[in-house]
Amino acid sequence: MRSISAALQAKQVAASGIPTVAIAVHEFTRGVRRFQFTQTLSDGSPDDKHDAAGDANYLHQARVRAGRVQYRRTGAAFADLGGGTDSNEVAIHTINNTRVIVVYNRTTSIMFRESTDQGANFGVETTIVTGVPTTAGIAVQYKTTGGDLCVVYEQSNALRRIRRTSGTFGSTAAWSNSMTSINSVGMVFAGDFHVVLTGVKTDARAAVLTVTLGDGFAQTLDTWSALLNLITAETDSGITFQAAKLNVLDTHRLLYVEKRASAPAYTRTYFTWFSATHVFAANAWVEPIPLQNTTAFGYSITTTGTGASAKATLARPAQVLEANLTAPAPTVLTPDLLEAQWSESLRNHKGRFVFDNNDGRYKDVPALIAVGHELRVTIGYDAESSTGPRETIVSWEHGHKGADSTFVINTRGADLWLDNARPRTSRAFSGLTIGQLIQDVLGRAGLELVDIGGSSRITTFILEWALHPHQSAGANLTELLSLVPDIIRHTAEFAYLFEPLASDTPNYDYTTQGHTIYTSKLRRELRISVAEIINADALGQAFDFTEQAQNSPIQDRRLDPHTAVVADLDGHAAARLRKAILDQDHGLIVTPPHCGLEAGDVIAFDDAVAATGEIKRRVRQLDFTFRRGRRGKPPKFEQTVHLGGV
Amino acid sequence: MAASIHPGILKAFDSGTYKARVHLTGSIHMSLSGVPTNRGIASGDMVVGRRVSVVLFDETKADDAVVTAVYTP
Prior knowledge:
The complex is a heterodimer.
Chain A: H1 6-12, E1 19-26, E2 28-29, E3 32-33, E4 38-42, E5 50-54, E6 59-65, E7 68-73, E8 79-80, E9 90-95, E10 99-106, E11 109-115, E12 126-129, E13 138-142, E14 149-155, E15 158-165, E16 168-174, E17 181-190, E18 192-200, E19 206-213, E20 228-233, E21 239-248, E22 252-260, E23 266-273, E24 289-290, E25 300-304, E26 311-316, E27 319-324, E28 331-332, E29 337-345, E30 349-356, E31 374-381, E32 384-401, E33 404-412, H2 414-420, E34 427-433, H3 434-444, E35 448-451, H4 456-460, E36 462-467, H5 473-481, E37 487-491, E38 494-498, E39 508-509, H6 510-513, E40 519-522, E41 530-535, E42 538-543, H7 545-548, E43 555-559, H8 566-583, E44 587-591, E45 602-606, E46 614-627, E47 636-644
Parallel strand pairs in A: 35-38, 39-45, 41-43
Antiparallel strand pairs in A: 1-28, 1-31, 2-3, 4-27, 5-6, 6-7, 7-8, 9-10, 10-11, 11-12, 13-14, 14-15, 15-16, 17-18, 18-19, 19-20, 21-22, 22-23, 23-24, 25-26, 26-27, 29-30, 29-46, 30-33, 31-32, 32-33, 34-36, 37-38, 40-44, 41-42, 44-47, 45-46, 46-47
Chain B: E1 4-14, E2 19-24, E3 32-36, E4 51-56, E5 65-71
Antiparallel strand pairs in B: 1-2, 1-4, 2-3, 4-5
């Protein structure tokens, strides 16, 4: 249950109060900025290997043109920076509006030139390390404004790192992983050094992978994490990946180029991100999304400017695209709201918001009201309110009926993304826990798993799993959750996982709090009391003999190919019985809205004519209705609480 | 999850284990490895590049499947 203030609690049980429902649309999607890029530079430069970094005043770009390392900052043309025509890789970074460093190779040496005046002047070309066979990738990131930094580069199909501390480069060190080949590397410093690379794995498959070089934040200093697959292509798929770039803007954002040699051949930039509060090591990237760019070396990604004028920037030698990093002020629709209806179950959220359009004020739909943007609801009484649902706009309608003209916005919750997220390729997993599989499925849909009390099976049950392009993330999530006693409550981009226990104490007691119950309809129906899980080599069973009452079982049998371990199959069967209890329809109550109540909460109330003592139920679904009184229709502000078993 | 039937392309076949690597139509990058194959199909007919029919008994387990037919459209 969402926390609400004592003042709001007092208001929602008061004898009277004026409903508050506030509606605003934000330029966010699944909790992250939805950038609207526009082109700010196009000069026809050839497509070369490149990198970019921004500061408060300039976009700094570096490229390798015919073996020459070249540099430009905003407003200037590319000019030679390197000392020869023997370079093939370049990286650039900037910090604190003073330092700019360009790191590049010259045949077998890694060199750098550095500026301390935002790129107006550069120091002399200086060697970092020699004896490096022609490298296939370089990345550099400052760590401190004093110039401490780390360079990561490819050498002999491995990554190596070298740090500069207090102005002095230390020794190089190789990573602890293996690749058959590497063809690009990108990096960002975010506590540790987060690295993305493309190349060919030791199983001969092309891949985009991530790895962490520790700086003592989440990864031990100067140790490397294991490689994590973002996407893998079969040896005979004709796919190669290249031009990996990584940065942290509002969240981690990653780009790479996918190149397909077989028909239909294409070269296309893809991008992905993960939920802003997720950790890099979770590897929970959104299913990569194509960008309208077909260059071989893709885009670099950075930020420029500061404060309200800060920009998210995609850059390549021939083109710069910018979007406001800060979201525009939300579009507030509250004054025009006539009606609002929304329902929330654990998985599915759906809303319909009706606005007055009698004077045609929504004839030109405000720019922020766009499919995919977030509609945020605040609910309460009088001046006291609480954050309500955060939904995604899926459609809008203009309508007339008699003298009324209305503008309607329809929304959905996380189920929209779960139903529409489908992998581009079959993906088979082994050795992952069910919790890790759930995290991957949610991440690909742009949602973040938050374990707030999951069962032990979430972290101990390891199984094989396969995803296919014809399956939605939602279908897979449903299947995974059917194997465990846990449930997930979706709130915006967050998926809160927990094991509901029969012993859970009520989150809210309507009787104790003096919260009015307008109407109630309490039900009792039969539920599954025998569950048998059948595997070719084993059988799992669970029984609810009390519910069965000896002679009237409702039986549930299903196949489970994932395990032949009887204890696991028994666990699956027990989970089926638990879910049957939670799904059982126990009727409903209708009340003045509780502004913090959520699906999955446990509530209690007394009903002297329906039961002796306290009735304890778990919330299966919430339906809200808000309506201003007009044209003979009475005002309405109520909440229907659909009840399930505890 | 329910059983389903899918078209695919044979990418590799091991006549010893009688298992195939199959690229399901619609999968951009990856194929399924270790898919058991109908023993009624002669190994000589399992030519890489030919179309195959694959039954997934449970879509969530890659090798809980069988190649039921090989064909040329």
